[in-house]
Amino acid sequence: MIRLTRQGSWRSGRHAQTGIDIQHIHRSHRAGFKAGALAHGLHRATGELLAIFDADFVPPRDFLRRLVPYFSAPSVGCVQARWDHLNRAYSILTQAQAMGIDGHFVVEQRVRSRAGFFLNFNGSAGMWRRACIEDAGGWQADTLTEDLDLSYRAQLAGWRILYVPDVRVVAELPPQLDALRRQQARWAQGSIQVARKILPLLLGSDQPLRIKAEGAIHLTGYLVHPLLLVTLLLTLPMVLTNSRVSALVPYCFLATAGPPLLYLLAQTEHGPGWWRELRFAPILLLLGVGLALNNTVAMARAFLGRKGQFQRTPKFAIRGSQDRWQDSTYALRCTSLVWCELLLAAFALALAWLASGGEARPLSYWLVIYALGYTCVAAISLIQAVQARRRETVQARV
Fold first, then answer.
1. pTM, entire model
2. Which of 144, 263, 336, 355 could form a disulfide with 190 if both were Cys (CB 3.0 to 4.6 A apart)?
């Protein structure tokens, strides 16, 4: 059993006396970032099966007993458990994030698993077979999402990844919006890096067409963010020319029904009273719109071939409402992107006002959503920055 951090190394005598070989390993450098750390851990570990958790994940006591039996099938290379949430009820922000993550694990991962599509290891709360990792080429640091990269390489090599939704591992949701920004930017940039690397291999493989098509959609899913941004900018000529195309906008609402239905279905797993969770759906919608600029900038770096550094999502050990992330040295400074987001919000609101008096009136409803999304994200960042600054001032006086 190995736990990876940085700088130095020690062995637990207490556990060693019970026959458990447990080590706490630090690296003195960040070469390869998380992929480098995992490769280092793989070299030091002696087992055939390896369980992987991020620092904030708290696995159940029977995690190994429940997942190891799945490896009795020699073709299984990885087993992914479901993520759950330590601090779901901490704030509206964490409630909305929980709804989004539930949609991924309750619906998306389950459907991919049952339909036989390619699955992705989510970077934590899962187990890998050593032979699978080595056969697929090992952990590679040329993308920021080494988990997605290895998952596709392993499945292209003939290994299977299983998803076990009944095993839940709780973890911390980012309570700070700028921490969420960093997490989303890393996932967005990394997914495009993996798409550029893996898509040619996937499309050129002998996999069925349906798997290739779903894999292409999966790897390029973050493209929705630059498309949202481009759509906003293209409404300007439509509004100024009173384009008749805007008359089709009400029908486009049908195309937006998918995500709400996905999150609706995911919440039904909460049992009686699940419908109460739906009050956070509008916040999730606004976050999705408001983070479009943040994620588009990150994806632009990937398209330009910039590798970038792995920036970890800050963890604050937040559990209950009495806990405060503002006191932590890990708290991030407010990003300058907030001013661009406020400009986009003003742009969308001005267009909505112009559209409301002409043929492009149907566009005004969409534009108000854009304005609210960018305002919401920027406002939360600024409010949290003020709160953190006040805490710093109070502590300095004390």
1. 0.91
2. 144
